[in-house]
User: Fold this.
Amino acid sequence: MTQLIDGKAIAKEIRKNIKEEVVTLYNEYRLIPGLCVILVGEDPASQIYVRNKERACKEVGIHSTVIRMSEEVTEKELLETIERLNRDDTMHGILVQLPLPGHINEDAVINAIHPSKDVDGFHPINVGMLMTSQANLQPCTPKGIIRLIEETGQNIAGKQAVVIGRSNIVGKPVALMLLQKHATVTIAHSRTKNLAEVAQAADILVVAIGKPDFIDSSFVKEGAIVIDVGTTRVNGSLKGDVKFDEMKEKAGYLTPVPGGVGPMTITMLLDNTLIAAKSSL
Ligand code: NAP
Assistant:
């Protein structure tokens, strides 16, 4: 029988620990972790994400600030704001909400954030550190996925892991992290031939495509751990990449959407902000 991996409950427990650590940090060092989120433009989904991040920070005692910039802001102005935040000792984490308007070069913006404040883990230095197993700040969604897999109590070492999707923010980093945990890792993508056959080999299947209900039970081996990263809004509700009703008869462990990976992503952002603050001591 399939066991659901309750991301919401796991995230709640982790946030409780973060909150306690935030109190300790203040009592011992008078240090309050600070996160600054920069939001450019009026994209409704981004507004919701930023509001959720603010709420989560408040819940654990992290000081959060949101800088809202108009859609017309120049790249130069944005880079100057990041430079100022890089020098601000009260801000330990800087996050620029993506996507950015087309006239702004996202790579230039990510590269401008000081790596020690890059709580998204997207800066090339942090990506390189991840590659060489030295990362202090790991990207939030992949980090949350690994925690969810570990919560099953199953050992990652020696398992066959298949990651479907090769984006820089989910697919590639989660594959690297699984490799670091000694899984044998295959990365599949839109050009992969016989995808179902590749996926069927997985003891751990991570799906990050962005196509609702794309993965049905024919893609999985009985008893596999299935992590559904996909979130697509369909008729007002969030849909994963995995056909949940079919999969919950076949997978050993399965994350729901919503309530699986999503709550972990923000929680790992809080964790990274705490790590960045502690590293500043
Ligand atoms: P992305 O940058 O669009 O990447 C999608 C990946 O899926 C690409 O590597 C693409 O292959 C692959 N793909 C597309 N169609 C495929 C197919 N038919 N067969 C096999 N592979 C296919 O997306 P992303 O940023 O990684 O996000 C993926 C999903 O996760 C989205 O739904 C996103 O909303 C969600 N997400 C959720 C969270 C969360 O916190 N819950 C966080 C981040 C992302 P190619 O490289 O060959 O094009």
